[in-house]
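User:
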Amino acid sequence: MKVRVKAARIRKGIKMAFFNSAITVLQTLVIALGAGLGVWGVVNLLEGYGNDNPGAKSQGMKQLMAGGGVALIGTQLIPLLSGLF
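Assistant: Predicted structure:
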């Protein structure tokens, strides 16, 4: 009986280790996506200022803020997923 309980705990530990590593990978991907979007927004913003184009400035600012929001989600909300199970 004790052997079965111990084996079940080991299997659960392996599953949790896999889940935690998947959370870490997901966090890294979301932060990288947010950073890429932010950089793209900065490029559009600078292009808008260079060409005196208000449309490009607006789009660049929106992309920059969206990238910051996505990166914030990656750093603050994704790690909370590891506490679900």
